[in-house]
């Protein structure tokens, strides 16, 4: 079932909150082995799209499949192949990092000995060993991202979906996360992540989709989307936005 399918396949995903259309019919096929960046300005619908894609938010219309398995019709199989780091911190933060990992592993029905061994390895690789006994509520924002990534990786998923993994992360930790994700893709995994940071997407991604106002505006390999220009130029052109006249906020000048 799995290998002939895209790692993630979204068809016609749509979501409205009251009168606000957050996502207006997103189609996306993420090839296995790709490093896929979902770019978009604030409020574009990235979190809503990814939440629907991984089974955290029920769409009004459309479907999401992980390696061929429908996340809503066949959630157990789809979620066994999927590791997710949601936006914000939806972690049980009154646990220590080590306890949180143990909780995630046991919830997934993993062998406790395997959970212990992988948790120790992940805490070590993510430079969180010293924080293993600290409660997650007392972690910094960057440490919370890293423990969130560890939880997503623990069961050895085939697809990782990460919402803003580099937000609030210092350069050293960002390099560490980049390295881990790069190794994960080299080892046959697929990563989809959302970001506003062009430089990160340009450096890491094989494929890019630009989302604005709830729809995909550009999609393809990085080379196809960028063409001869920088990704930032393409992004600004696609997303539009206000151009300063120089007259604004004149009261700030002395
Ligand atoms: N639970 C909700 N209730 C009402 N409106 C919502 C809800 N979640 C999202 N929205 C709205 O849907 C739109 C898309 O939001 P979303 O969080 O998906 O965007 P985003 O691209 O992830 O933005 P950001 O980069 O700022 O995180 C926004 O206008 C937002 O205000």
Automatic annotation (TrEMBL):
Main location per the UniProt record: membrane
Start and end residues of each ABC transporter domain: 8-238
CDD domains: ABC_DR_subfamily_A
Compartment(s) of residence: Cell membrane
A biological-process GO annotation: response to antibiotic
Superkingdom of origin organism: Bacteria
UniProt-listed SUPFAM superfamilies: P-loop containing nucleoside triphosphate hydrolases
Protein name: ABC transporter ATP-binding protein
Annotated organism of origin: Micromonospora robiginosa
